[in-house]
Amino acid sequence: MDYTELDLTDSFVELIRRAATILPDDMRQALGKAKGNEKAGSSAEGALDTILLNVNIAEKNSTPICQDTGTPIFEVSYPVGVSTRMLADQIRAAAAIATKHSYLRPNAVDIMTDKNSGNNNGEDFPTMHFHEWDNDSIHVDLLLKGGGCENVSTQYKLPNGRLHAGRDLEGVRRAVLDAVNQAQGRGCGPAVLGVAVGGDRGSGYIKSKLQLFRKLEDTNPDETLAALEDRLYEETNQLGIGPMGFGGETTVLGVKIGVQHRLPASYFVSVAYMCWANRRASMDVALSGETMEANYA
Amino acid sequence: MHKLTVPISDEDIRGLHAGDTVSISGVIVTGRDAAHKFMIEHFIRSEEVAVDEMELHEELKRLLNGSVIYHCGPVVKQDEAGNWSFVAAGPTTSIREEVYQPEVIKHFNLKGVMGKGGMEAGTLKACGEQPAVYLHAIGGAASLIAQSVKEVLAVYKMDFGVPEAFWVIRVEDFPAVVTMDSHGVSLHTTVAAASAKKLEALLA
Q1: pLDDT tens-digit series, residues B56-93
Q2: d(CA A266, CA A113)
């Protein structure tokens, strides 16, 4: 196959549409279950009820679940021979088309002029990472990360005296609990927490966001981390912050932790706080067959 | 459920308490970061309003009197005839406007500030004095909320960009929760105090 003729622009538009308008099943189920756990007639129950109604309307009308369609983050796996510069151009073109269709809000603002570019194209915008792999196909994961929850995402440098958090997993636990308490309702909970331990300040934040691609039912292959994820899920929900910070039983819907090697001098805990609108979508394009149809998930 | 119609009376506002559910009908105006900075710099703290901004100032005074400012940067659509409609219109985080909000409430005689995440002492105090309330819309419920936006009547300061412009909208049964009332009570303070106590126990 001649990879230079590959044009996935339309498929990227469809991927963006799906991410912006269809909440993944696992999130929907978790929100439904959460509603059942809240006190009847409470603002927390009302908030979840509104959220679930909204999710249905957005899918039915193909309109954005949330008007803040966030930073589009593309993680692209591709085989040898495919030009990533070409794919990047197609992603940028697709972002502009998706904006025209109102699947995305114009969301890229120039720092120097303060002008909105109007088409979700800009310096380092959208975010894209490319990973070469051995498969004869292209796989794309897309996350739309809203600004409200991004603003309450945070990074800790351990040890931390205020939290009595040392350089170990107990220290990580303390940092994550503090992050959720600090966020209160400002990040549009119930949240999913992507946590990265280690790395540097840059790689740690990226790794923490990558955790958000994991499904809620996904169990960490590392038993110790799996246990910490479960414990943090239980404990963050004891904080009582509740949906939207109205108070209630559901503060967090899932905790996912990844680790990276660190420098001897550093011990970072990066917390990506994701709002209930955890908008992720993926697609696979087989390059070996006669046609190049994209399959979405 | 309290039904509020713009212009909202002081009596209605005094009858509201943190935790109450409300639905709002009437003409309200969106305004977020750029809009608040603009109102403060050009209308409120400036010695005089520039000639070419006077018309907008008067129009906003008329529209906001007894009404609600909504912290929102919508997704919009324009049809071939040039008419705008709201596609997605959930609230944005309000706290960024805390430094401006008390003055904006007073200057325009606002009865409500709507957004998400709550605000702090300055706004709570202004709510008590005006009187006004802070209304918490459901963050992210953008498609549902857009359905309660029946009409886009005007847009000002489009040069701020779509999310940051002033959108004048007519809403019907717009759902929200009062989280800061005119009696000095903030649900955000109550919840934060309780969670801080719980956190202390978990970290003991």
Answers
A1: 999 999 999 999 999 999 989 999 999 999 999 999 99
A2: 36
Give residues 16 to 45 of A whose Cβ lies within 8 Å of B.
43
Q: Write the residue in A47, A53, A240 that is nearest to B195 by C-beta.
A: A240
Burial class (CB in 10 A: 0-12, 13-18, 19+), B121: exposed
Q: Where are the domains of chain B?
A: 2-202
- Whether CATH 3.40.50.1110 fits B2-202: no
Mean pLDDT of chain B: 96
Q: Bridge partners of B121? A: none
- Classify residue A212 by its DSSP letter: G
Q: How many Å apart are CA B125 and CA A242, to the nearest integer?
A: 25
Q: Which domains does chain A have, with CATH numbers?
A: 3-22+65-146+279-296 (3.30.360), 148-274 (no CATH)
Query: What are B119-132's pLDDT values in tens digits?
Result: 999 999 999 999 99
Catalytic residue among B2, B17, B36, B188: B36
- Search chain B and give the residue with CA nearest A117: B161
Structure-block tokens of residue B169: 């909208």
